[in-house]
Design brief:
The complex is a heterodimer of chains A (344) and B (327). Chain A is of the alpha/beta class. Chain A has helices at 12-15, 21-46, 61-70, 84-90, 94-101, 135-149, 167-178, 198-201, 226-244, 270-277, 281-291, 297-320, and strands spanning 4-7, 76-79, 125-128, 155-160, 183-189, 192-193, 196-197, 218-222, 247-252. Chain A is built from 12 helices and 9 strands. In chain B, strands 3-2-4-5-7-6-12 form a 7-stranded mixed sheet, with helices on both faces. In chain B, strands 9-11-10-13-14 form a 5-stranded mixed sheet, sandwiched between helices. Chain B has a two-stranded antiparallel sheet with strand order 1-8. The chains are: A alpha/beta (344), B alpha/beta (327).
Amino acid sequence: MAEISTLEAKSKSAKQGKYSKETYLGWYETMLRIRRFEERTLLAYSQQKIRGFCHVYIGQEAIAAGMASALTPQDGVVTGYRQHGIAITRGISSRSAMAELFGKVTGCVKGKGGSMHFFSAEHKFFGGNGIVGAQIPIGTGIAFAEKYKGTTNLCVTMFGDGAARQGALFEAFNMAMTWKIPVLYIVENNKYAMGTSVERTSNVHQLSKIGLAFDMPSESVDGMSPETVHEAIERAAKHIRAGNGPYFLEINTYRYKGHSVSDPGKYRSKEELENYQDQDPVKMTEKKILTNKIATEAEIEAIKAKIEAEMDDAVQFAEESPLPTADLLFEANYVQEDYPFMMD
Amino acid sequence: MSRIITLRDALREAMTEEMRKDANIFLMGEEVAQYDGAYKVSKGMLDEFGPNRVIDTPIAELGFAGIGVGAAMNGLRPIVEFMTWNFAVLAFDQIVNNAAKTVSQSGGEFRCPIVFRGPSGSAGQLAQQHSQTFESWLGNCPGLKVISCVDPYDSKGLLKSAIIDDDPVCFMESEVCYGDKGDVPEGEYYIPIGKAAVKREGSDITLVSYNKMMKVAQHAADELAKEGISAEVIDLRTIRPLDYQTLVNSVKKTNRMVVIDESWPMYGVSAEIAYEMQKYAFDYLDAPILRVNSMDTSLPYSAPYVDAYLPSVHRVVAAAKQVLYVH
């Protein structure tokens, strides 16, 4: 039985601050880490130290934070190419992430992936996928393997509103429901597929309704607050771990920067951007912590200082790390170590 | 002890033997379970392994190929059957953009040990959309291994190697050869990926082919023998990586070569072989290498079109005589 519940307003419980101090500070730290990491990324890109396609997560940090507190380390995560924030939150260090952006051999995938392709087997972070929507069947398969092996782990399969229009979604949703695969689908609806608004790509603007066609439990939730994200994912995960099959969350969010570093964002109004910046998850959470006296200003300042130091260190590490040597081109194309490449 | 069994039985034995040894191997695809396979390759496997390991899918090639890729990245060893490689085109995003790239873009963090298998090539009067070969398409792509064979002995040994391989393998069979019989030994054996086989020794000319065009090559060799011409016939078996050394060794002996390749002529397997031979056996060649491909058109339905389109014994014999300067 499918149902749509729209929880656009922040839930009552979250307003009262029902979670522990550690949880709030954890969310804040996670979001601030992503924000500062991405700001350093944009700076380094402007200095041409980072090249290629590069998409930052600024504005969407509450999703990563709310997800972090609702999952276990054994759960898999796969996402698209706007992935720095999710990757860091799943455990890839700021150092190895920044080094990857700099194309250094010390990067999380040895300079082979760049901005779109971080991976970590240790943290069950399956990428970092550059083809819009291709990770939807892949995440379904990752979750399929968990069920096959008899675990209670799930796989969070994240994608953007643009990917929600891909055929791969419909094939994967269908098989996931038919086979009761433990997959949590999350569409991060940041309103624009590159420069094309959700309204211009379909008559169905509330993306959670897509789940109805498959009788998949589906919700639309506010993605500007880690509390609402956390609660929705916790609710979904409980359903999935009980063996009931997939769950679909449309998490409504907004990216403050362009689609990629080269996008000035002329397709949206200044007022719209400012409206969402008023809901900035980093600022709002900081305000909430201080207003409700969950922690002191000194504690907030300590987190800020810690993150600044972490970013200074990450950038320095990336700067000082060596570039890969050309012979590494032939490494990690095949598992087979003596694969006979055609050399002429 | 050796037995005479069909290609479909040989392929099923390969899958069954490996699935008995490793619970992480499973088979998925359209009609593979309850229907026993569109061409009965998986007949009886549902009974032995149950519905968790022999899985009927909806008609959704992109979706189930992607599920296979994800499962392979997370520790399983899927065998994904396509009813034909023509339908696998819908899944090329997952094969080319993901399976082939998993190791590279993850810097070796993840691997994708998956077998995509099914029939490739023409199979009678099936018209344009059901008659294509994909060896050249996928053989072009680093990250993949590509096998294309129809001999029951080779097919069993190569499929077993493909299933236990840690890299993604595209395995191409032939719809019209599933009932063909051949000697297959009792018990397990593996044939290494990337090794061509000299199927017939000869001294005057080398005929190179793979998959069901091997039959055309063999028949052409029979015809040439009637005229006193001794043809060596080589089955590539693996398209990527290409065992060009076996071809070089043969050309050093025969000094002449014709490639029989069901692919379209341009940018394909035959062109690659001709390149390798001029590079590594130039001084041994007494004539230009010729190729006999399918025609550079789509394949229409009616029988005369099919005859005119496919490589034939007649065309191979004519090409062989041309490189032998025999008229």
